[in-house]
Fold this sequence. Notes:
By secondary structure, this protein is an alpha/beta fold. The protein contains two helices and seven strands, in the order H-E-E-E-E-E-E-H-E.
Amino acid sequence: MNKEMKTLVEIIEMLREEEFCCDFQIKNNILICTDNSETYFPEDVIIEKTERYEGDSNPDDMSVIYAISSNSGVKGILIDAYGTYADPLIAEFIKQVAVVKESENQV
């Protein structure tokens, strides 16, 4: 089945509608919600959905979007470059996070 390609903005908007409202970032192997400054360790969160995005006009414009839920109920997204430009700090954190196994949880 051919899956229609979505833009990065469309994927983010879909996740926002599913209440993944916080924007996350990684500092010192800690996940931080930029909206409220709450911090999380890998064992405090799960990855519910992931989506890879590749720009139409530039194949080097690749991202991976993680839809993450915390044990405190905060839900948000973490975006990283994919491939060569990926942030090694994000990759190290993500390797330690539990992932929902169901493939149906793809955006």
